[in-house]
Amino acid sequence: MNILEQFGLNKDQSQLLFSFQRFLVYQDILVEKKESVKQRKEEWLLLWEKGIEDLLSQYDTSLVKDEIELIQISKNEVEKCEEIKIPLYLILLESTLFVPYFQLEGWKSKIFEKVTTDDKISAYNLKRIANLLEIDEEFIERYRKSFKKSVRSASDFFSKMLIGASLGALLIAITAGIALPFVAAAVAPASLFGAAAINAGLAALGGGAVAAGGLGMAGGITVVVGGGSIFGALSGMALGAMLGNSAELALREGAKLEVIMREIILYAQKDVRFAQEMINGQYEVIKKLEGELAELKFNEEENKKHIKNLSKAIEYLRSILKSSEQALVESNKSGVEQVEEKTHS
Asked: Where are the alpha helices (DSSP H) in 82-193?
């Protein structure tokens, strides 16, 4: 299994992830007291659902909207994963970092209105999801803190924004830079066109997933999450072209990679070998992107925008890679100290 496949969710796991995200939005709508805002949230959910259903229909599956059924398929996936729990950790990570009510074709936020989630309800329902996945609730807060820390260390702009900003506000700001129709359409299934393609792509990207069914990967992988898009899982489009349109995608997905490195691979799984593979993979990606950047500079005037975005994306990825390397060093040091303690005791 190559490194990219480690970040892939199969058809059933993808269905579970998107169904959890829908569940979070639906529960938020139920407690909304202001009727006009509730209506706007319902409008958004309908468009988001349509985008995700268009995506899932390519794999002969659909969203699970019944809560009892959702509980049952969660139980089934936990049993299937047995000791290999990485897909479950990834599903909880993407659910934790999911912030709805981003712009969609046919639904745009208005300056005078505030359409946000109820943080208390969201926290409560994320804990329910963690329990269904049989993952300790502590990971929700660990994911949040680790993600913010990674973004803060990688970006001067978002570092300033983080002062007093919630995780939701940060993610909305980053996603706003990702939600470009051109980028979204590139992620959508090839059978979709126009607004349908854009909304399918926006729904997938906003939810943190990238469709990868056309890559011919083993195991029936349908979507890639947790920053796996950095390793090249982009349907019908090169990573360099994607990041040339949105440097923020590199920041968000790269920060997720660091969260996975620290909280899942090193803290939960204690898999130093795979952590090293991730770092080697990131080196290869950066090297490839630098080659693409050099080619763009042969026509600097024509490619000015792409050069600026890709340069910034590479800068983000270098910074995040440096932090990930430090995490591995700290983990190795901690492991040696633990061995020494056992030896002396």
From this structure: 86-96, 119-132, 138-154, 156-161, 167-178, 181-187
Contact partners, residue 126, CB within 8 Å, separation at least 6: 24, 92, 95, 96, 140
345 residues of the chain, pLDDT tens digit each: 578 788 989 889 999 999 999 999 999 999 999 999 999 999 999 999 999 999 888 888 999 999 999 999 999 999 998 777 899 999 999 999 999 998 888 898 776 778 889 999 999 999 999 999 999 999 999 999 999 999 989 988 777 776 667 788 788 878 777 756 777 777 777 778 888 888 888 888 888 888 765 444 444 557 889 999 888 766 556 788 888 888 888 999 999 999 999 999 999 999 999 999 999 999 999 999 999 999 999 999 999 999 999 999 999 999 999 999 999 998 887 654 454 455 445
This prediction's pTM: 0.91
Separation in Å, CA 201 to CA 114, 120, 182, 207: 24, 29, 9, 10
Of the candidates 202, 214, 225, the one whose C-alpha atom is nearest the C-alpha of residue 58 is 214
**3-state secondary structure at position 221:** strand
Q: Write out the E strands in the chain.
A: 8-10, 210-211, 221-224
Contact 293, 310 (CB under 8 A): yes
